[in-house]
Amino acid sequence: MESEAIRVLVVDDHPMWRDAVARDLGEDGIDVVGTAGDGAKALRIAPAARPTLAVVDLHLPDMGGVELTAGLVALPEPPRVLVLSASGAGDDVLAAVKAGATGYLVKSAGREELLDAVRRVHAGEAVYTPGLAGLVLGEYRRLSSAERDPGPEAPALTRRETEVLRLVAKGLAYKQIAQRLAISHRTVQNHVQNTLTKLHLHNRVELVRYAIDRGLDG
Which domains does the chain have, with CATH numbers? Predict the structure, then answer.
């Protein structure tokens, strides 16, 4: 998905906020293919609009953003989901991530932080408002220790893929991993994509969970 043009669907029940987000994205050259003030409209227009990413508020008049997130990621051509919410409550963050959201920002985030998050989530990175990443990783660690199951033998990863996976599990961004390993940003993306394919996973969030399950985040 990294090489695709970014096509965004903005879902928020506050018209001024919705329009401001759409305007900021458009002024930065990002294609806003649709806006919606409720979940039903978002799910109705998404198949034709074919967004590659949806910016979703958690509190909507007809359904929760968590329910909408689950509906969007279940589409035949699912967009990645970036939640943009006034709430930074742990329960809200974890519920959104478990429903399939790849990123979560609180609405106090600045314009540049939003634009950066949109591009990184579109590229498959898990992006959270500072302070929330540790919450999500902590919950994954708790779940993995409670449900640890050796499962089938894991597919063989190369030494470099394993190095990249360890750093992904520690929460490093792709650019940080590239600097740490003295390789290009594109090479990091390729290693992550190859690892996802080998492990039959779909996104960075699932990859982090896989790594934690196997103790690679230490």
Answer: 7-133 (3.40.50.2300), 153-214 (1.10.10.10)
Q: Residue 34 is inside which H or E element, if any? A: strand 31-36
Tokens of residue 36, six digits: 């919606």
Q: What is the pLDDT of residues 110-161, one digit of tens each?
A: 899 999 999 999 988 888 877 665 655 565 555 555 544 544 555 678 888 8
Task: Show contacts of 153-158: CB within 8 Å, 24+ apart.
Answer: 154/199, 154/214, 155/198, 155/199, 157/195, 157/198
Cβ(65)–Cβ(56) below 8 Å: yes
Rounded to whole angstroms, how far apart are CA atoms 164 and 168?
6
For 51, list phi and psi in degrees, rounded to 5. -70, 150
* Pairwise CA distance, residues 92 & 107, whole Å: 14
More confident residue, 10 or 163: 10
Average pLDDT (28-51) is: 96
